[in-house]
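pls design
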């Protein structure tokens, strides 16, 4: 049982181990009997900025069950600045830190409205980033970001929740731009397995959702957003990660893996990362 409602947060990266840790942290919270859950971050010297969105979704899930969530001890200075610069810690009473180099897309609660609001968020925040690959025609960039927004909108609609959080980060040393949207709703495997008559494993259910034209929408619309992102990251040597329930699925370049987390994540995360030093000339035909 967690001591007096205190949950110890550890160093966390945006990889399988990081998502697995957050899923285990969520499971650990089930044993907390106190009214308040306190995230203790005093020993954290690295917490990936991208992982602030899934952590916020988990914390909001606890709040929805009647808990109060606080950050009891601050992370070490470098991580403290990162999580104030992207506004995660600002939700827990800390002051924002100015983002002088425009490397952060702040942690944002997406509005509970009919849903190209996700696309609006991305068009506003990502398209204005000075780190987006430059050798794209304006039409292709608009097309790609709309596909990105469509993918998130579809995931959100399937999730049946208003608990949706997005953020992003430019990693200077790696020359990569990452964006993540996380929700606390119905998972992709649950939705797909209730829709597709054939028996699929949870990992195969996520793969099914990634294929062109596949959708669980009753009107049959949609289904291409995630597929277009897959095509792009294959060309760009970027990556696309989907975490949903106990499934961890990742495509890096043209290679993909599917694994199981040790505990379920209470919803879905879609994490898109692109190489910004990309000399290819992209136009709309490349993803049509």
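designed seq:
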């Amino acid at each position: 049982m967690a001591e007096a409602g205190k949950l110890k947060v550890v160093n966390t990266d945006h990889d399988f181990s990081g998502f697995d840790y957050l899923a285990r942290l969520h499971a650990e919270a089930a044993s907390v009997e106190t009214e308040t859950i306190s995230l203790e971050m005093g020993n954290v010297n690295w917490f990936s900025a991208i992982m602030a969105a899934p952590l916020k979704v988990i914390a909001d899930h606890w709040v929805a069950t009647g808990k109060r969530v606080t950050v009891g001890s601050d992370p070490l200075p470098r991580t403290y600045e990162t999580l104030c610069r992207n506004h995660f810690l600002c939700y827990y009473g800390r002051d924002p830190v100015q983002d002088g180099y425009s490397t952060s897309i702040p942690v944002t609660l997406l509005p509970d409205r009919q849903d190209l609001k996700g696309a609006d968020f991305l068009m506003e925040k990502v398209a204005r980033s000075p780190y987006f690959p430059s050798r794209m025609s304006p039409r292709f960039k608009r097309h790609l970001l709309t596909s990105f927004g469509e993918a998130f909108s579809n995931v959100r609609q399937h999730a049946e929740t208003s608990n949706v959080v997005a953020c992003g980060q430019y990693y200077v040393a790696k020359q990569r731009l990452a964006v993540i949207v996380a929700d606390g709703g119905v998972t992709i495997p649950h939705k797909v397995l209730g829709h597709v008559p054939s028996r699929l494993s949870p990992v195969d259910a996520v793969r099914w959702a990634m294929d062109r034209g596949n959708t669980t929408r009753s009107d049959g619309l949609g289904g291409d957003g995630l597929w277009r992102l897959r095509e792009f990251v294959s060309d760009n040597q970027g990556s696309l990660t989907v975490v949903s329930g106990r499934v961890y699925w990742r495509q890096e370049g043209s290679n993909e893996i599917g694994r199981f987390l040790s505990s379920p994540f209470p919803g879905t995360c879609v994490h898109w990362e692109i190489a910004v030093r990309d000399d290819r000339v992209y136009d709309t035909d490349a993803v049509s």
